[in-house]
Design a protein that fits this description.
The complex is a heterodimer of chains A (about 325) and B (about 500). By secondary structure, chain A is mainly alpha-helical. Chain A has 14 helices and no strands. By secondary structure, chain B is mostly helical. Classes of the chains: A mainly alpha (about 325), B mainly alpha (about 500).
Chain lengths: ~325, ~500
Amino acid sequence: MSHYLLRRLFYAVLILIGVNLITFVLFFKVNTPDDMARMQLGAKRVTPAAIAKWKADRGYDQPLVWNSERQGSEQLTQTIFFQKSVEMFRFEFGRADDGRDIAREISQRMWPSLALALPVFLIGMLVHISFALLMAFFRGSYLDVGGVVLCVAMMSVSGLFYIIGGQYLVAKVWSLVPISGYAPGMDALRFLWLPVLVGVIGGIGSGTRWYRTIFIEEVSKDYVRTARAKGLSELVVFYRHILRNAMIPILTGAVVALPMLFMGSLITESFFGIPGLGSYTIEAIQAQDFGVVRAMVFIGSLLYIVGLILTDVSYTLVDPRVRFE
Amino acid sequence: MFLPVILWTDALVFALLAVLLGALLRVRRSAPLRASWRRVWRNPAALSAALVLSVFLLIGLLDTLHFRPALSAASVPVTASAPGAASASAARYSSEVRSVLDVLLAPLASRSERTYSAPLATHAYARETIELPDGRQVREFPRLRHGGAHLVQLDDWAEDVMLRVLRGLVLALVLWFVLSWMLVIALRPQAEGGTQDRMHEGSRMSAAEFSAQVWRGQSEIPWRSLLITLGFLLALILPIGMLVPEYHVLGTDKVGQDVLLLSLKSLRTALVIGTLTTLVMLPFALLLGMMAGYFRGWVDDLIQYLYTSLHSIPGVLLIAAAVLVLQVQIETRPEWFPTTAQRADFRLLALCFILGITSWTGLCRLLRGETLKLREFDYVQAARAFGVGHWRIMRRHILPNLMHIVLIAVVMDFSGLVLAEAVLSYVGVGVDPSMNSFGTMINAARLEMGREPMVWWSLSSAFVFMFFLVLSANLFADAVRDAFDPRLHIGGRSA
């Protein structure tokens, strides 16, 4: 087990290096610092001196991968690649264009993100699984068919409409909650329940349908037939046998998403004005702050890979048949 | 008269059509493929969805035939053009790129108002200060320049609208009967006992009998659902067509453009993103997936490493990063794009590529897994034993057996991509702001929700169009997956 984990960790680091290389090529090779400077300072009339100053302020005035002007190890370290890309592994992301430290900003903003994403995830899963169980229990009936049709219809609505509709109905027409905003501590509840509700409803279509497929697949397996042949009631078959076995794909599917909850949701956060990582990313994209976007790409990949490793571990925990050699 | 213009995305759409045509010929020749497609058509929802989709596709295609109109006819004053018109063929073309759809909808485009107006309205949405003939000033809702301008008396409005809708419905009913009858005549199968070689009229089922069969839902292909959908479509399109000449059926937006026009123009963007993205990523996914599965060893490791790394980056962020980079490239090189249409088109194409880069990994993994399985099959082993080259084996023996996965991926991805476009445009990394798309419509409509009274029609139009496009795509995709996925098929038979 530990041997296997070590190998997975080694592979994870390799992938992170790959991600890092991809972002490096994208941000510094395809798009040279000169391009970025010209973009930020206005494309047309810009003096070389202004560009040089812009680059120097941000530490982009060094060679990309090899500094031939320095001696010894500084030939490698005094480069953009080392300063901007390798440093990320130490969680040193540098400063955003507004001068704030990116790492600090991220560590502060991930909590509001989590406060929104975690309830959406947990409540959502509960609701989707309940609906899916209901539909699978009455499979083939009008309830099931109607449910599937409703799911497909709900999947066909863009997430943007759920948010706009929710804001309009709950916040504007009924005036139950503020349209957007955030407050720390318990006050956050007032601002959070609408986005959570919208998030849960928005996910019902695809979520319920996905879990239903899992349950239906389990229903047609041999052990279910055996259980029925033993004379167990359909309800017992469902809760004792099917639900338990279906939990394996459900849990492992959930674990992979767990770390990504820190990243928050881009659209929901910016619509509701929640100062999380999602809105941070959107602001950075709109302000074309490349440093922040690069940091978020790195964090996102890191969390995803952590999720993958956790998935592997959770397989061994919930399914005794799985073993790693 | 006009100069045809083929933008990059146009060229790719035409290429896609050629591919589809080639695929159609292949399907006609191969019995198993025909059987699979028959399974798709046996699904009533898929049949209806295909009809709706094809209406959208037709609109999108009309919007893809681009040209630059000659200047002499349109914009040079009539007096000046008379003597020199013949020699004007030496080509002075407008710099504005138009499409066939623009020409068809030219009346809509030319009848723009000053600002917002509600659907079917005769008056503007907000009060304005109007000077009366006697010099007094009052604040009231001004009459629209075009919406309902033909009405002499405003009291006639309701009657006029009703009459037009009614006329449209009657026309729809007549047209529906004609089309249904033609369909029944053309499609009626061989009568029971009539053999293939006696193809004269007598051996066919009588039209009355067949239409009764269709009506009872007993025909093999559920034509009834197709006809019902056709009826609804006609009952929707024709009344609107009757109203369009005098009203803004879906209202107007902030600068007075007809919202119906904007929605129809947005369709092409959605369709291009939904289809071309998968098309441009397909060669990579196919080649890399097959190579990884077929060669195994270090090739497999390398390709797996590549797509795992790409897949680890959260999709939106990778897209955002790539679009940011692209934006810089476009902004710093204005000399590449002589017209705004070309710039917008380039950006759309680039967006397709960027979306493709992020979405090929899933397909690649599936193809790799399937190839791993296929390469151990006897006929592949036999081919290898005969000394057939690797590439030839991949092309002749493996590629055709991967096509069902490709097809399923293409149709399943479509709806997700259409939805993604709206989100990306909202984030600011979508299509060019000058390009019509549902994303830009929703984005603009967000601010309108806060107005008093609320401007709801742009958002609702975008919602309705997107909903039906994505819904029919989803239904169609489900049917295709069910018909082509051999796993499901075998499972269904044994159960």
